[in-house]
Amino acid sequence: MNPSAQKVPSVKTLQINGKDVSAREDQTLLDVARENGVFIPTLCNLDGLTPIGACRLCLVEVKGARRLLPACITQIQDNMEVFTETETLVKYRKMILELLFAERNHVCSVCVSNGHCELQAMAQKLGLDHIRYPYLYPKLAVDASHDRFAVDHNRCILCQRCVRVCDEIEGAHTWDVQGRGTASLVITDLNQPWGTSESCTSCGKCVQVCPTGTLFEKGRASGEMTKREFLPYLTLMREERV
Amino acid sequence: MVMNLTKPAMPSDDKRWKIVNATMRRHGHSQHSLIEALHTVQEIFGFLDETALKFVAKSLRMPLSKVYGVATFYNFFTLKPQGEHTCVVCMGTACYIKGAPQILEAIEHIAKIKPGETTADRKLTVISARCFGSCGLAPAVAYDGEVAAKVTPAAATEKIRRWMNS
Amino acid sequence: MTPEELQKIADTELEAKQKGGHTLCVCMAAGCVSTQSDKVKESLQQAIEKHGLKETCKVKGVGCMGLCMAGPLVAVEQTGALYQMVTPQDADEIVKNLGKPPVKRLECDTTQPFFTRQKKIVLENSGIVDAERIEEYIAAKGYEALLEALTSMNPAEVTEQVSKSGLRGRGGAGFPTGLKWGTVAKARGERKFVICNGDEGDPGAFMDRSVLESDPHRVLEGMAIAGYAVGASQGYIYVRAEYPLAVKRLKDAIKQAERHGLLGHNIFGTTFSFNIEVRLGAGAFVCGEETALIASVEGKRGQPRPRPPFPAERGLWDCPTLINNVETFANIPPIIRNGGEWFAGIGTEKGKGTKVFALAGAVKNTGLIEVPMGISLREIIFEIGGGIPDGKKFKAVQTGGPSGGCIPEQFLEMAVDYDSLAKVGSIMGSGGMIVMDETSCMVDVAKFFMEFCMTESCGKCVPCRVGTKQMHELLTKITGGTATAGDLAMLEELCDVVKNTSLCGLGMTAPNPVVSTLRYFRDEYMAHINDRRCPAGVCKIGKEQLATV
Q1: Hey, is the C-beta of C492 within 8 angstroms of any chain A C-beta?
Q2: Which of C387, C456, C412 is nearest to C203 (CA)?
Q3: How many Å apart are CA C486 and CA C255, to the nearest integer?
Q4: Which member of A172, A206, A231, C78 has the lowest number of beta carbons within 10 Å of its beta carbon?
């Protein structure tokens, strides 16, 4: 596309938690909040991937809106008044995290990602110290058929980052989700062992973007399970080429 | 690299694959015809097996996982072969409050299977459905597609017993 | 097709009708077909031949006559006589008595309130025209509205009439239809689409099925008019695959309309072209949500996406898309024919026109009814519905399906419209109305709906996916007699979070059945929790406890 033909986005002003900020009209609330040092929790969101508004942690209150809005996907508007830390929001965020912890098996002490897990870090950050809901503990499979990686569905929070990175960045679309509701599972190809997948390029991007210990590299101690931040770099490079 | 864009060969000599092909062709082999194609496969083969899913995926040039994701999202599609007879118990609200749970219980008791399962001898598949939209006839049961009205547990048991002994 | 040709088809039909003789109308909607009305139709045909009446009498299949519980229904077109629960063996007697007083034994009283208290707009042709013949629809003023819109109105004028009528979306939420049309008309886009939502997933609702089976052309005509008003040339009807008869009739109707030039290129010689394709749903309640429906039409998993942007701006393939429900489109032809003001004269201040309800459950007359907005629940249940059978006592009426609530006796006098139902904690919904008597346990009913929402949750967003599961666990505990007061508090808290944080309408309304039963039948919850007792005797508390001891 010819850059000169692009419409130049205009600048708008809005309020976040009572503070005036300015933003380009094509920015999301989450972008603007982060630029201004306002913390909004997220799990499914990842810079460089299409936002899907699934985890609901980034919900914010907008004056005049009938409902809470997901910051990751909501475009800013002129004179918006946004609140990110109301009592209700704090309560809802904790409850949503509780629901996630109770859904599968998130016992940190025996997890490969202990200490490097975004879910664990989020619980600490939001001050979640105990889970009131009964643990549902479905007994799900662990697939270690791939020579370098493994998938433990018991840790999965269905954020679909792996599905999106594989489709949007790697272009392989090895991952997708099968079933629905609590029976949803991330799958490779025709729900076959990962190691037998014909479309997987073994690039490892899915492992890098997984927020929990679901997708992990084999043969590493949990202390080494740090993740690379390659997506923001990729995105930046692509933007500059436009 | 030259991409091979020719359509995949049919999985077998079975003429029915031509019908599947026709459905996809009618929609220009576009990806949005996936659900229509799966409907056609299920209509003629009774269920969606791996061969069919792979054939459809290749024909529409779609990732396998995406096809599998769609096939398992919708209740109407089944990946397992069905029994010779199917008994679908409506569990819509009207049927529910008029005793559908008791009917299902009676059927489970005699067939020794749960909804969604098929008996070992492949005689019978039992399914619990959301709502036939035949609420005026509640409780309703569909035996091999024929809707029966105001069914009692005894009548259902009788019908299933006859099928199982046939 | 020219206007003259349309008139000629209508005239030929009417002439044939005036020739005298008798026409037997057999209900061929799914309800009656399942009680063998197709065999009744055959027998009637044979009886006519046997008695040598082939020249003067004929048998035709028609759509739903409403009183499904008394099927198979057969009507005599010329005299208005109605026969109920007809068997193939009765055919001979019915034919022999044509032209004489009706057969007493089989007669259905058409002066009962079930028939006299209804007002039919959407169902005006149901049970009268043969759904499989376009000529009969044309003779009943069919496609006149499309002709009028295309030849003597501009698109803005069509939308204006719809706005004037005050018609609100019949799918459940009640968004003003005219406003929606205006938004899509104004939206910028080279291509636009019209989608008819026929994914009637509510358990206990069969209005759309009936309309599609009984009068499919009405929906096609409504969609074509909408296409003209918003500037779309392609329409899709999304129908449940579980409705094979409706799908078949729709597909046939589309072919007939195309053959007559009422769909396709340059309709009535104007520059307007419009095509309609059927898309089959595949069993996912969430696809009734418009963004999920769009995903499904695109061949994907039916998962909703956050709105805005609304489909009116970015819908199918990111093009501006108008989505209306079957009943909404079915209201369009009469609105255009008679003018928006005529429609606005029916109903209440905020709810115009009529509403079709599927009346079922613990009520004598189960079936399909159409009533003016503003009628009271008591009139619907006790007059039209004939009250509760077997001398039982009324307990509640459930409207809106899994997104609605249970309304107790104290609100029976309430006038039914969108706002009044919302005020008492339910919704209009698509029109399912299930009556419950004293033998229904309200906690069990809440659990039934929660199980529905849980298994129909698409799994995308956390509160709906996990929240409904946790609520179902708690309700199972309560109905099992093992819950504590703390569990009830947790349930109420979950209702709040799921309602306010879920991504789409399914999750946002999933707690409604629990909230409304807690509001009006809290004592039943307390009986399960405190006394370990189910007042209605539905929940197996005692048995299970004995088994575990």
Answers
A1: no
A2: C456
A3: 60
A4: C78
CA–CA distance, C540 with C479 (Å, rounded to integer)? 8
Pairing mode, strands C354-361 and C432-437: parallel
Q: Assess if residue A95 is contained within a domain.
A: no
pLDDT in tens, chain B (166 residues): 445 567 788 899 999 999 999 999 999 999 999 999 999 999 999 999 999 999 999 999 999 999 999 999 999 999 999 999 999 999 999 999 999 999 999 999 999 999 999 999 999 999 998 888 888 888 999 999 888 989 999 999 999 999 999 8
Task: Decide which of 1.20.200.10, 1.10.10.60, 3.40.30.10, 2.60.40.3080 is the CATH code for B85-164.
Answer: 3.40.30.10
pLDDT band for C30, please (50, 70, 90 cuts): confident
Residues A153 and A44 in one domain: no
- Choose among B32, B74, B130: nearest Cβ to C203: B130
Model confidence over A129-153: pLDDT tens digits? 999 999 999 999 999 999 999 999 9
ipTM: 0.92
- Token pair listed for A11: 């600048």
Q: Which residues, including other chains, have CB under 8 Å from residue C462's CB and lie 6 or more apart?
A: A54, A55, A56, A96, A99, A100, A157
Query: Alpha-carbon distance C529 to C157, whole Å?
Result: 59
Domain co-membership, A213 together with A156: yes
Residues of chain C numbered 413-442 and touching chain B (CB < 8 Å)? 432, 434, 436, 440
- What CATH number is given for B16-73 in this structure? 1.10.10
Chain C neighbours (≥3 Cβ pairs under 8 A) are A, B
Minimal-distance CA residue of chain C relative to A184:
C459
Q: Across all residues in chain A, what is the average pLDDT? A: 91
Q: Which two tokens stand for residue A237?
A: 């490079």
Selected residue of A178, A186, A199, A200 to mutate for chain B interface (largest B Cβ count, 10 A): A178
In a domain, A100, yes or no: no
Among the partner-chain residues A167, A180, A190, the one whose CB lies closest to the CB of B64 is: A190
Residues of A in contact with B65 (CB under 8 A): 173-176, 187-191, 199
Based on the domain organization, do A191 and A71 belong to the same domain? Answer: no
The CATH number linked to A23 is: 3.10.20.740
Q: How far is CA A212 from CA A162, A191, A193, A201, C102, in A?
A: 11, 21, 20, 22, 75
Residue window 175-214, chain A: list those with CB within 8 Å of chain C. 177, 179-184
Residues C236 and C195 in one domain: yes
pLDDT single digits (tens) C47-72: 999 999 888 889 999 999 999 889 89
Q: Report yes or no on A47 lying in a domain.
A: yes
